[in-house]
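Record type: monomer structure entry
Structure origin: computed from sequence
Chain ID: A
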Amino acid sequence: MDMQTGFRERLIAEGIVFPTGVDGLWGRSATFERIYAGLEAKITRLGAADGAETMRFPPAMAQATFEKSGYMKNFPHLAGSVHCFCGDDRAHRALLGQMERGENWLEGQEPAEIVMTPAACYPVYPIVAGRGPLGADGHLVDVESYCFRHEPSLEPTRLQLFRMREYVRMGTADQVLAFRERWIERAQSFVGDLELPFTVDIANDAFFGRAGKLMADSQRAQTLKFELLIPVNDALEPTACLSFNYHMTYFGDTWGMRTADGDAAQTACVGFGMERLTLALLRHHGFAIDSWPAGVRETLCLG
């Protein structure tokens, strides 16, 4: 097996994931979901004392909200829009004819005014901003959503639709930076309890176009993003399984979110790549959960 597909082929052969015919789009088994549920519960316990507000969202968001977020300025290559049929009987017959002839039947579809959610935290900011100024202590949200990024790949960890769990902190610079530092420490302890090898390093997002490198360099120079990396795929490069992001006042300015003092709110988030963490556990501990180290099974309440 080649270096890119070996782990993927083993996952398929063991019935852990189910291919759908589209790279980066997988079905998942009971074993996969059992591990996933254990991670979910543990992450909830890690953040329970912080008093976060819980928000859960579908994998799509309002087109108007998406446009205002500015995502298309930096990541147009990753975005996905939703279109649907809005025609009459005649248009329907024409569409069926196009399908029968193997023609492009999508050209007649119209925007549905929703787009695929690119990051779990994006729907949070306008909701919180719409409530008025933050309290003196700022605000914290525990959010989860399916996310879409158009990155078809044979790597099991690079999915087009995946679940992201985040804690999102909003407040002053001191509040959000202290939150990020606290979660960098928590996350290392958490992954250590899972008995997984990892490193934490400065990172950058996959900005688009000729200006993308300059933006990535600036992001790294300002240490706005860190990632916790775990070897998962057959390739030599480890996989980012958690990210720790400081947005400064970007979302505060975009949505008019203010602190109690009237300043633009700053934000930070910690994001857990849930499928990636699940796959990391399978890669390092094997496909039989009952044979995993006792400490890992205890951490995830897997019996």
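Annotation 1: Residues 173-193 form the longest helix (21 residues).
Annotation 2: The radius of gyration is 21 Å.
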